[in-house]
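User: Could you walk me through two proteins back to back? I'd like the raw sequence and the structure tokens for each, with a short line separating them so I can tell where one ends and the next begins.

Assistant: Of course. Protein one, sequence then structure:
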Amino acid sequence: MGACGANEQELFDQGVTQLEASEYNKAIGYFDRVIEKNESNTSAHNAKGVAYFQQGKFDEAIVAFTTSIRLDSSSYKPFFNRGNAYLEKKAYKEAIRDYNFANGLDPQQLDIYYNRGLALLALEEYEDAIMDFDIALQANPNQALVQFNRAKAQLGNNDPLGGMESLINAINLDSNNGPAYYLLGVTQMSALGQKEEGCANLKMALSLGYKEAQTWVDDFCQD
């Protein structure tokens, strides 16, 4: 059946196909046609928000997610998605609020814990951030970014040994993580006085293109 005579579900499915193909404007066009047929189609509003989000149009995405929530507040997805848009806008308190709603609706969604941890980390709520990262890692400890951000929360929480352990885990999972080598080197030198080990990691960070390590190498690691 051609698009002109397509029904609501067919239009939605075509929109999802365009969304998955990164054809975001085309996807929005299909979702708008779904909404013209049924303005109460919460999935279309949510999916339209995802298309806007992928384009970096976070304000438009928030409007779409909010409409989806207003029509049906029983799904975690638009709350989670709106939280992600707020996270991108650095509106961390608003993001946490939405992640809390999403978590209450579906506690099994592990991405909620990680993303809420990022927002808590940004607000320097280190202990709560660590708790969320720990939950994400319980399900799968082999997540380099979670280990890395957990390390940042631990260092912020004055736990250099725990932070170093998490940084080593992150590096073992992703040997190209320059910022992890940098943080590990700085912590080794500043917290434990381990100059040789710290300089080796700072130089590794620099070799991976993490230029912030240059000052430390110049100041402390010259032979």
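----
Protein two, same layout:
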Amino acid sequence: MKAPGFWSRGGRLPAFLSPLGALYAAATARRVARGGRRLGVPVVCVGNLSVGGTGKTPVVMSLIERVKALGLEPQVVSRGYGGTLEGPVWVDPARHDASEAGDEPLLMAPFAPVWVAKDRGAGAEAAEAAGAETIILDDGFQSADPARDLQIVVIDAEAGFGNGRVFPAGPLREPVAAGLARADLVVLIGPEHARKAFRQANVLPKPVVDAELAPLETGMDWTGIRVLAFAGIGRPAKFFATLRGLGAEIVEAVPLGDHQPLPLPLLRRLTERAARLDARLVCTEKDAVRLPPGARASILVVPVRLRAPDWSALDDALARILPPRDAGS
């Protein structure tokens, strides 16, 4: 879905919808209070307080790398938003596509084994049985099963908390104070100026990792390349800003809904439009995994990764919950 404009401001409509927001918040509070099954391996949850994308997937990718650096084998559990698989199912990119597994599990699969499960607890049990030494929950902060040892909340510094109201009156899944009270760590993502402005407007009572999404170095020089850019992510404007920062000339920007399917008729229209504009088609990694196989070769992709000047807050949190490895193991 695309975020309605009133989610970023006050007014009569958010006030009118606020009783529904209160009901939504109460349902979330009941759900997280239920408790969940305790597993025999550490469980780390990466989630957010807002509806839509804040950068959880890049955080999961970085978390995988840092857990592996400690000598442990992580596996990821995802609900597979947008996919049809009920699970628990181990995601095989050679066998599953985005319509089955969802786009984010396919994006994470090259980094670590990924399980799709509508029942997160069952998915975590399957991962543990398959040999996971650490389980990473992709999303699921507003649920309680399975029990988790570390909860990480991801915040988009530029979007912030919108109008501060709970869905449908605003973008929040729950009140900010309630969510931050359960968090162990915050990853604040955005340009330095945006992070600074966010901190001036908000108090973060938990340890924070400051980070920024940056293009992965691929050796391609984007300077002056005319592109028709499309993006079906939480905030397409972030992708378009990244392209401009690389030096590309965006002759047309096409924002799509988060997780929006990319059928061939839509891609044909985009391809024809790009040809008329003498431009190349370009999209995000997340869009690329939703492309039909025949369309992938002709579309440029810009991968991004999370960069942080200081990971110590995350590393300290992991050291508290992960079992030490024997010397020489």
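The two ends are 47 Å apart (CA to CA).

Let me know if you want the two compared in more detail.
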